[in-house]
Design brief:
The complex is a heterodimer of chains A (586) and B (240).
Chain A (H helix, E strand, L loop, with lengths): L6 E10 L3 H13 L6 E4 L17 E2 L8 H11 L6 H22 L13 E2 L9 E2 L5 H15 L3 E3 L2 E8 L6 E8 L4 E12 L20 H8 L4 E2 L4 E8 L15 H4 L3 E3 L19 H15 L7 E4 L5 H7 L1 H9 L8 E11 L2 E2 L12 E3 L16 H20 L11 H12 L10 H14 L6 H18 L13 H25 L22 E8 L2 E8 L25
Parallel strand pairs in A: 1-2, 1-9, 2-6, 9-16
Antiparallel strand pairs in A: 3-5, 4-5, 7-8, 8-9, 10-15, 10-17, 11-14, 12-13, 13-14, 17-18
Chain B lengths: L4 E8 L6 E8 L6 H12 L18 E4 L2 E4 L13 E5 L6 E3 L2 E2 L2 H9 L22 H10 L6 H5 L1 H5 L6 H11 L7 H8 L13 H5 L6 H19 L2
Parallel strand pairs in B: 1-5
Antiparallel strand pairs in B: 1-2, 3-4, 3-5, 6-7
Helix pairs in contact in B: 2-6, 3-6, 6-7, 6-9
The chains are: A alpha+beta (586), B alpha+beta (240).
């Protein structure tokens, strides 16, 4: 395969990804850009079907009055992120969520749950001081993505479905982005898409862990491309674990999928292998403690038991009355039943499961990056959540910043009359990298992916130590090296999933190394990052965030001080007489 | 069930269409049809193509014909479909095959949009959100079909779709009915025009496969019946 064989394609605005960020960007770009602007949306799966926004259960955080304010939402976000968030990004998230939720209801056509008086119903998740989460039952993401998808499909934007981005191709001087190299997965052909502005909204998805929630297409490709392109990545040690993932064996794709937060909120109990409740040994709130605390509690119990035949703990709901559980958690009970488990009357084995990635590309509040022409939004962007994302802030973040990206690109595209020429050396190198496995002797890839997932789970997971992470780095390097000896049968490249399994694992290895190095650099415990050898959070006023970047072919990790641009630790933007919480005690 | 095997017969296309290959797959306690397909690709036939994303019945990417019946493969426990120890898996019916078990869903979504399956609103992001009584009959009617995840199982189940390429199909028509009942939607005329054209609701023969096979237990057949009633009423009223 030579560079000359790559198909060429041009567009004005290219959007990578069709989650909440990508779809909103397409709609906003269409509204903001000059009429003749060509907009293209490219995605690794089908439009609106892959990606994680669709899988949002809980809902959408937005301060809509009733005593709640943008200031209060902001303070919860800063406190939840343990003072690491970029405050300007967090502020804009909370402020614009108010506009975006009206846009979703009024222009996009979503219908969220109502109170009896017809107003929007809002509930409170852990870590919130107001009933703030707008939702559609426990399938909020489906409503948001289905409605957005319809609007985008009808908008006339160009679609590049089942197109996988494999490399960001800069200009010769490296200062700007010329375009993106992609594989048309349906045919296996390479396509280089030049664009004046590109949004990367491919989503995070920490699937390098043995247990993980994100959909199967998520493998950190966006961040791996950004890393190679020399961009700075922040907060890369911050992996959020959801406490209750289904444990059903390593031969089934069901393993790791989420059993919803609401089960614990409603009184669900966690019991260990001996049948005993244990969460009160770890926290006064028991099972109702926040995600990070419950994940660590479960992990500690698993480690104590240390039995490979009975690895997890159990969630038990039956004391609430099986019929009641069946009614209240209809979808969850049915999902478990389809998979062979009785959630209503029996016990279901669970483990903490890697859920969300707080880290991402360093961007400004308009989604611009250090590279002209490249914009990043959604889970690929870092900063808004700091060390921990509150439930309900994820979909708010992707839709708010996706819209902002569309607006920004719609304006910026006018400044660029000509397409930029790519650095052909980088184009050749990225092509070479993607076809590499086709020249090696074919062998199975999954055993190697499992090896990486075990390594990350054991050494760079829920609880971390320096020794463990150093061992982790060794393990990642082993998998990484071994991967380069494993080939893929390239006789038919059309919809060749095994080729993509290889490329997926390549991305996961690259980002696993960054997570581990950032984890080693942070010698304290904040939010999702817990160091057994440094259990203290450190002084909030001295907060630093990690920044990782490729330097001379190696991942270097630096630390930068958090700028408290809006509020300093110990202070608040709420009025002095504001109550600590507006949530009625249960 | 360990040490037993499942005989998985996979029909793949498009060249040649329907070529059958048999695989012996180890059986496990917790195993879905998608797991069986994945095992084949990951262990014995790396060239096998299939599509999936969420793994939990939320994205609607992985539907296939299982023993001749359309199903979500991610949420179908293998024990439910084994005949003896055998299962036959084929690409979803009524859509063109890209490769093996992967179909091109564009026609399905084109029809969704052709049925005016998108919000027609008058309000903007500057307006307050409308108050809607969640128990009103219109809202209840709209809610009935709103949780469709566009998996195309009903589209594959429908015999009318297979004989009439123009027919919009159950999912698109159900979406139109959902919007027609949505008090926030202002597209009534457009929707009725769209669903009474050549491929519209009158093509439906009420055979009910859509409702019988919907994994979400929705009822597109009744939604289509509703559209037929509304379009008849509108016809007499407007004399068109």
């Amino acid at each position: 395969m030579r560079v000359s064989e790559i198909e060429r394609h041009d567009t004005d605005i290219l959007i990578l990804g069709t989650g909440g960020a990508g779809l909103f960007a397409a709609l906003h770009a269409k509204q903001t850009a000059p009429e003749a602007t060509k907009i293209t949306i490219a995605v690794k799966g089908l439009i609106g079907k892959c990606g994680c926004t669709r899988m949002v259960q809980g809902g959408y955080n937005v301060a809509l009055g009733g005593g709640d304010t943008v200031e209060r939402h902001f303070m919860d976000t800063i406190n939840g992120g343990k003072w690491l968030p970029n405050q300007d990004m967090a502020w804009r998230l909370c402020e614009q969520a108010v506009v975006r939720i009206r846009e979703l209801e009024n222009e996009v056509g979503c219908f969220f749950d109502r109170n009896a008086d017809g107003s929007l119903h809002q509930k409170a998740f852990a870590g919130q001081t107001a009933d703030r989460t707008v939702h559609k039952g426990d399938l909020t993401g489906i409503e948001i993505i289905n409605r957005l998808m319809e609007k985008v499909l009808a908008s006339g934007v160009e679609k590049l479905q089942e197109h996988r981005a494999v490399g960001l191709i800069p200009t010769k001087d490296g200062a700007a982005l010329a375009g993106v190299l992609m594989i048309d997965m349906r045919t296996g052909a390479f396509r280089f898409v030049r664009a004046k502005t590109v949004l990367m909204a491919t989503g995070g998805g920490p699937t390098m862990y043995k247990y993980h929630t994100p959909s199967g297409d998520k493998t950190m490709d966006g961040l791996a491309m950004a890393l190679r392109a020399g961009l700075k990545l922040r907060d890369m040690e911050m992996v959020q674990f959801h406490p209750t993932g289904l444990l059903a064996g390593d031969h089934t794709r069901m393993t790791g999928t989420v059993l919803e937060e609401g089960l614990r909120g409603a009184g669900g109990q966690l019991v260990n292998h001996a049948g005993q409740r244990f969460m009160f040994d770890y926290d006064a709130n028991g099972e109702r403690a926040t995600r990070d605390i419950v994940s660590r509690g479960i992990y500690a119990e698993m480690r104590k038991n240390n039995n490979p035949d009975q690895e997890g703990v159990f969630i038990s709901m039956s004391h609430l009355g099986p019929e009641n559980v069946r009614q209240k958690f209809k979808g969850m009970v049915k999902r478990c039943a389809d998979s062979g488990f009785d959630l209503a009357a029996g016990k279901v084995e669970v483990v903490p499961t890697a859920h969300y990635f707080m880290g991402g590309v360093v961007v400004d509040v308009d989604t611009r990056t250090a590279m002209e022409g490249l914009y990043v939004a959604g889970e690929d962007a870092g900063g808004a959540h700091g060390s921990n994302r509150l439930g309900g802030n994820g979909v708010a973040n992707s839709t708010v910043y996706g819209g902002i990206a569309g607006d920004t690109m719609g304006v910026d595209v006018k400044k660029h009359v000509y397409f930029r020429d790519p650095d052909n050396d980088v184009l050749a190198a990225e092509l070479e990298r993607a076809v590499y496995p086709l020249g090696q002797k074919p062998d199975l890839i999954m055993p190697l992916r499992r090896k990486l997932q075990d390594c990350m789970w054991d050494n760079v997971g829920v609880m971390r130590t320096e020794a463990g992470m150093k061992q982790g780095l060794g393990g990642i390097a082993e998998v990484s090296t071994e991967l380069m000896t494993i080939g893929v049968d390239g006789s038919n490249l059309a919809f060749n999933l095994t080729w993509h399994d290889w490329l997926n694992l390549r991305s996961l290895c690259d980002i696993s190394e960054v997570i581990t190095k950032a984890g080693l650099a942070r010698q304290n415990s904040r939010g999702a990052h817990y160091r057994e050898d440094f259990p203290e959070p450190g002084a909030m006023e001295d907060s630093e965030f990690t920044v990782a970047q490729m330097q001379n072919g190696n991942v270097a990790v630096m630390r930068e001080p958090v700028e408290f641009t809006i509020v300093k630790p110990g202070e608040t933007v709420l009025p002095a007489d504001a109550p600590e919480t507006l949530v009625a005690t249960q | 069930m360990t040490e037993q095997t499942i005989k998985a017969i996979i029909e793949r296309g498009p060249n040649p269409m329907g070529a059958r290959t048999q695989f012996d797959v180890p059986a496990y306690d917790n195993q879905t049809v998608l797991d069986v397909v994945s095992w084949v690709q990951q262990n014995v036939d790396p060239t096998l193509s299939y599509r999936f994303a969420c793994r939990v019945g939320m994205c609607g990417s992985c539907a296939m014909m299982v023993n001749g019946v359309p199903r979500w493969t991610c949420r179908t426990h293998i024990s439910k479909v084994l005949v003896g120890n055998e299962v036959t898996i084929a690409p979803l019916r009524n859509l063109p095959v890209v490769k093996d078990l992967v179909v091109d869903m564009d026609a399905f979504f084109d029809k969704w949009i052709a049925a005016e399956g998108l919000h027609h609103g008058a309000l903007t992001r500057e307006d307050p959100i409308a108050k809607v009584d969640p128990t009103s009959s219109a809202r209840v009617a709209s809610d009935a079909g709103v949780e469709c995840i566009n998996c195309a199982v009903c589209y594959a189940a429908c015999d009318t779709v297979s004989t009439n390429q123009e027919y919009l199909g159950p999912a698109a028509l159900q979406r139109a009915w959902t919007l027609l009942n949505d008090t926030k939607d202002n597209g009534r005329e457009k929707i009725l025009d769209a669903v009474t054209g050549a491929g519209g609701c009158q093509n439906c023969h009420s055979m009910g496969s859509c409702t019988a096979y919907c994994p979400n237990e929705l009822d597109p057949m009744s939604a289509i019946a509703g559209l037929k009633r509304e379009s008849a009423k509108s016809f007499f009223r407007k004399g068109r």
